[in-house]
């Protein structure tokens, strides 16, 4: 591969780092879902995606293929984009629908009532709750009480990668991200969580994180059984 | 019965199967789905200990003798609850029907509880079939797979009016336990197929039925737990939790167990091996030995002791199914002597 081609491929993979599995809230690259990625000298990109099972839910699969298509198409040096999901029960419908930029309802004629915005929002909300636990857990461990956490603002929390991630999820939901905004907020309307409400809220946040992490563990194990080869950009975690 | 450190555990495997998934049973034109389904199950088996893995050929077509040895001879199980999953759109004779289960169960009286199933999209014929199965097999439970494909439909919710008709009929026929298994498809496809809010509604509207949510709602543990705290008749079926996490991801297993003990509680959790995905032997041995890791992040969770493990491994399911438990395998506090003492005091 020439230096130019290698650099172009890296840019495509970097773009794919921004495509997340909506349920697991992790990039499709690090999860191992990018089976291969080729970029021609002329700027034609061919990406193949793969999932842990043949029956992974069609709606989430569609979102990942469509998002991958969009982030690659947005790169200025790209001429053509071809994203294909392999080995999936709805692969033909998803691939054809995304290539035609047809949307979910049109791609699944008669089987879907709406596009996937609401589904996506539901899962960003879960990711935001899980992210809140990631930020709060060390504070609780160091002796801050749940009620005290309810009195903190985002600006009171020391900087960390976890905090950056939480801010991004809050931003996606249209929730306040400024330093004066409360640390604990209702994901629906952004109102502050009260001191007495904090233990239950934090319990839900921890539970949501546990659910996502357990699913991620199972998905990684299933993918490893299904495919021997490491994915493009894959990272094993824990 | 499993014995360890002088403690005896009565074991009810509340979720297990006898399936027939080889190529000779694949529906013509739907081979890719039949193959995809069983390969997906086989991948789950890879999450258990290596020495318990089977070849895909054995996995598709294990025998009745394999089951009897793995579940009862080697696997410590006292009573096993057969759960059918039909999938007749993909498997010619069905993947795992009530009849297939009964074919083995009838040879071994007292060892199996024969559950059946229904599909609300089957209409009057489905209601008749349900009544006939309950009559013939004495079923007290049904297994519902909401993602089953049926004549162009990719699934249903328990809140569909037809599902309520079937639930009412089941109750009238004497069914007590509804095992719910969510899957990846539903109508409409843009909704989350794994959402358990329909179970929440059904559990409220059918308070005399018990709803055992298999694999604790995975991948929606959080929705399940939150619902289960509010519904007294909702139970956590531990199939997949023990099999899929205890060996492969022990840290996550401990966290999931912690959450379940906190939100649902040890009185409402039931062991299920999910055989033939995983053999019960290693799951039971590992579960009895299991303790929370000695780390601060687990300190807040309720503890699980020997009594709790006895309930989860068998006594809870025995209650749900009126299975007779030998006196020496009951919890000590449940011994009749204690009640007599109480009576003496009040008299």
Automatic annotation (TrEMBL), chain A:
Residues 10-83 form the MIP18 family-like domain. InterPro entries: FSCA_dom_sf, MIP18-like. Pfam families: FeS_assembly_P. It comes from the Bacteria. This is Metal-sulfur cluster biosynthetic enzyme. The lineage of its organism: Bacteria, Bacillati, Actinomycetota, Actinomycetes, Propionibacteriales.
TrEMBL record, chain B:
One of its GO terms (molecular function) is hydrolase activity. InterPro entries: Amidohydro-rel, Metal_Hydrolase. Residues 12-323 form the Amidohydrolase-related domain. SUPFAM superfamilies: Metallo-dependent hydrolases. Pfam families: Amidohydro_2 (PF04909). This is Amidohydrolase-related domain-containing protein.
């Amino acid at each position: 591969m020439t230096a130019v081609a290698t650099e172009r491929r890296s840019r495509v993979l970097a773009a794919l780092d921004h495509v997340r599995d909506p349920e697991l809230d992790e990039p499709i690259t690090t999860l191992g879902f990018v089976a291969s990625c080729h970029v021609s000298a002329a700027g034609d990109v061919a990406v193949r995606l793969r999932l842990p099972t043949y029956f992974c839910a069609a709606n989430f699969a569609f979102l990942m293929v469509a998002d991958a298509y969009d982030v690659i198409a947005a790169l200025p040096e790209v001429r053509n984009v071809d994203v294909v999901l392999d080995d999936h029960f709805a692969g033909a419908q998803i691939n054809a629908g995304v290539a035609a930029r047809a949307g979910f309802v049109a791609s699944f004629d008669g089987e879907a009532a709406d596009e996937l915005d609401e589904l996506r929002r539901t899962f960003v909300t879960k990711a935001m709750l899980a992210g809140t636990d990631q930020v709060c857990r060390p504070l609780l461990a160091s002796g801050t009480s749940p009620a005290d956490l309810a009195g903190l603002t985002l600006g009171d929390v020391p900087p960390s990668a976890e905090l950056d991630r939480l801010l991004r999820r809050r931003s996606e939901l249209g929730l306040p991200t400024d330093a004066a905004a409360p640390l604990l907020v209702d994901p629906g309307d952004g109102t502050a969580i009260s001191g007495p409400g904090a233990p239950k809220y934090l319990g839900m946040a921890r539970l949501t994180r546990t659910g996502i992490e357990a699913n991620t563990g199972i998905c990684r194990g299933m993918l490893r059984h299904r495919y021997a080869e490491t994915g493009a950009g894959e990272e094993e975690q824990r | 019965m499993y014995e360890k450190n002088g403690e005896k555990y009565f074991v009810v495997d509340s979720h297990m199967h006898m399936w027939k998934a080889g190529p000779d049973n694949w529906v013509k034109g739907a081979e890719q789905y039949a193959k995809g389904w069983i390969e997906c199950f086989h991948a789950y088996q890879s999450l258990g200990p290596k020495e318990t893995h089977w070849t895909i050929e054995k996995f598709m077509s294990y025998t009745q003798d394999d089951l009897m040895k793995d579940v009862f001879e080697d696997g410590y199980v006292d009573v096993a609850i057969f759960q059918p999953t039909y999938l007749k759109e993909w498997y010619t004779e069905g993947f795992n029907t009530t009849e297939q289960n009964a074919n083995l169960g009838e040879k071994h009286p007292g060892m199996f509880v024969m559950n059946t199933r229904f599909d609300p999209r089957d209409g009057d014929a489905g209601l008749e079939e349900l009544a006939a199965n309950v009559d013939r097999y004495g079923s007290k439970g049904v297994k519902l797979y909401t993602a089953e494909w049926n004549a162009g439909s990719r699934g249903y919710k328990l809140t569909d009016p037809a599902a309520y008709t079937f639930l009412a009929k089941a109750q009238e026929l004497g069914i007590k336990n509804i095992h719910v298994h969510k899957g990846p498809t539903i109508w409409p496809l843009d909704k989350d197929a794994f959402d358990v809010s329909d179970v929440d509604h059904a559990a409220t509207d059918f308070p005399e039925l018990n709803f055992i949510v298999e694999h604790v709602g995975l991948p929606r543990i959080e929705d399940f737990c939150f619902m289960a705290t509010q519904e007294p008749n909702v139970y956590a079926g531990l199939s997949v939790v023990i099999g899929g996490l205890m060996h492969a991801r022990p840290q996550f297993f401990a966290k999931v167990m912690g959450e379940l003990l906190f939100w649902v509680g040890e009185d409402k959790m039931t062991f299920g091996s999910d055989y033939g995905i995983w053999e019960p032997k290693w799951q039971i041995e590992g579960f009895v030995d299991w303790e929370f890791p000695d780390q601060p992040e687990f300190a807040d969770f309720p503890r699980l002791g020997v009594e709790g493990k006895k309930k989860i491994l068998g006594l809870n399911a025995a209650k749900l199914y009126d299975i007779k438990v030998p006196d020496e395998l009951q919890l000590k506090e449940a011994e009749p002597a204690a009640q007599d003492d109480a009576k003496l005091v009040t008299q």
